[in-house]
Amino acid sequence: MKNIRNFCIIAHIDHGKSTLADRLLDVTNTITDREKQAQILDSMDLERERGITIKSHAIQMDYEQDGEKYVLNLIDTPGHVDFSYEVSRSIAACEGALLIVDATQGIQAQTISNLYLAIENDLEIIPILNKIDLPNANPEDVKDQIVDLIGCDIDDILSASGKTGEGVPEILEAIVARVPAPTGDPKAPLQALIFDSEFNSFRGIVAYIRVMNGEIKKGDAVKFVNTGKEYQADEIGVLRLTQEPRKSLSTGDVGYIISGIKTSTEVKVGDTVTHRDNPCAKGIVGFAEVKPMVFAGVYPIESEDFEDLRASMEKLKLNDASLTFEPESSMALGFGFRCGFLGLLHMEIIQERLDREFDMNVITTVPNVSYIAHTKKGDKFEMHNPSEMPDPNSLDFIEEPFIRAQIITKSEYTGSIMNLCMSKRGMMTNQQYLTSDRVELTYEMPLGEIVFDFYDKLKSISKGYASFDYFLIDVRPANLVKLDILLNGDGVDALSTLIHADNAQTFGRRMCEKLKELIPRQQFDIAIQGAIGAKIISRETVKAVRKDVTAKCYGGDISRKRKLLEKQKKGKKKMKQIGNVEVPQKAFLAVLKLD
Ligand code: GDP
Ligand code: MG
């Protein structure tokens, strides 16, 4: 136990976490040349393309120093706010954290939010200035920022380059010297923290665990404290480049357990594994049920694909417990599912996986956050869909989730960022200069406003020089109304949104304008109207046109005409027939791109 070191790496995206992790594996000979491939920790294709680590993994390294042998467990953490609960559980499995800061970028929003999590869990922080090989590195300034942020001594900061390998041996030395060995009682009843899990189509669910107390042996009868379910530890082992079975895992160890579980929902991140016959007194603190925060309808483009879509969603759910879905129907879109996601990135990932892995062509409706409706009768319930909004006579009030957002930017952009945040109903609670030209702004704002195009706008007005992170703080009363869109007089439920009353007028107008751009002309006029209850607040018209695509073709070139007709038919597939109006897929997300 005294020669084990469990640590994670926290960093803002692109500051070099994966590259440095690879280097550590390299220097400790954990990967052979043959196995070496760039960014080994990011194993999903999607992850690699996006350059972000979506699912956390762990890997064990052997390391020798002064004749003493050490076992180093690196626990990788997902960097995105959508997965912050998983990050917190990974951090809880460690005693130390490498805090990586890009020497050209300085401290960014995610650096800070992940650091807070690490500090809350009493982790030993090893600050590392990375990318020092770059000519535009600014080591002195960035070191000052780090000292300001964590209050360390300037000499405690290591300098490294994941690219050239410079400074990497010193990082390993510091891990051994500064990260405390695990504590805990090997004789106590078993208490192991599940910090992640993964679905394997042959083995079922593989749970990643950190043993906090006691010992687990292959074949033990175990119990998961929070779900109350009992299993047998069919296989346990450690995580090298592959899973390596072991006979036992003891206090301080990081490894995996396979116990014949087939669905992801039975294995909850943060749960505690103990022995059935000699259970620990209580579970490890910090367990929470992950709750989806963003909801959207997902509909097949062809209604006959509904059952296929259900099958695909069920498969996705097997390895992603945080995805929720239940059938719903829409007048406009037919049968589909109301899905719950951890956040917008998670929603995008699911949409992309449906497309890539299951070849499912879907329409996703405007996402909304989860609101709490209070009725005059004193009932309260969560609304995941604008259609669940009670009618004004029975509604008492609505509450919406609020976040605390941190934005770090160059001072020249603060003015426009403040305007943006104000337009999103944000209230500034703090403004702090990190250096003479870098500012940290703290805002409290409704999560519902972030769901729309906030991040894209922030990026464009700051020319990319703003980083942003947030966490949920509470729910607050909100004056929301339901805005409906009518096409030729018929309401299109899938286009309804809940919106703050003060913004409804402008929003309705822009929505109609945007839909006018997106809905192609047809053989009759199409009236697009925005309405709150029975009151029409905006209107646009798409003028009729007689659309004859073959008219452009001169002469009797039949094959060319046929091709054009084929093309038109295909084009139609991306349309959804609503009443007598054809609406293109992207219209359902028009609201996200209003400017
Ligand atoms: P992550 O998002 O924190 O995992 O960052 P990555 O490890 O994926 O690195 C982001 C980008 O920075 C990649 O293009 C890397 O090649 C590059 N990079 C990482 N570390 C270094 C470094 O030390 N020096 C230089 N010059 N580039 C680096
Ligand atoms: Mg990465």
Describe this entry's structure for a reader:
It is built from 13 helices and 34 strands. It has 595 residues and is α+β, with helices and mostly antiparallel strands. The N and C termini lie far apart (57 Å). Bound molecules: guanosine-5'-diphosphate (GDP) and magnesium ion (MG).
Summarize this, please?
The chain has 595 residues and is of the alpha+beta class. It is built from 13 helices and 34 strands.
List keywords for this structure.
595 residues, alpha+beta, Rossmann fold, Elongation Factor Tu (Ef-tu), domain 3, Alpha-Beta Plaits, 5 domains, 8-stranded antiparallel sheet, 6-stranded mixed sheet, 13 helices, 34 strands, 35% strand, globular, binds guanosine-5'-diphosphate, binds magnesium ion
Q: Tell me the number of structural domains.
A: 5
Radius of gyration: 27 Å
Q: How are the strands of the largest sheet arranged?
A: 11-10-16-7-8-15-12-13
- According to CATH, the fold-level topology of the largest domain is Rossmann fold
Look at the structure and give the mean pLDDT: 87
EC number: 3.6.5.n1
Organism: Labilibaculum antarcticum
Keywords: Cell membrane, Elongation factor, GTP-binding, Hydrolase, Membrane, Nucleotide-binding, Protein biosynthesis
Pfam families: EFG_C, GTP_EFTU, GTP_EFTU_D2, LepA_C
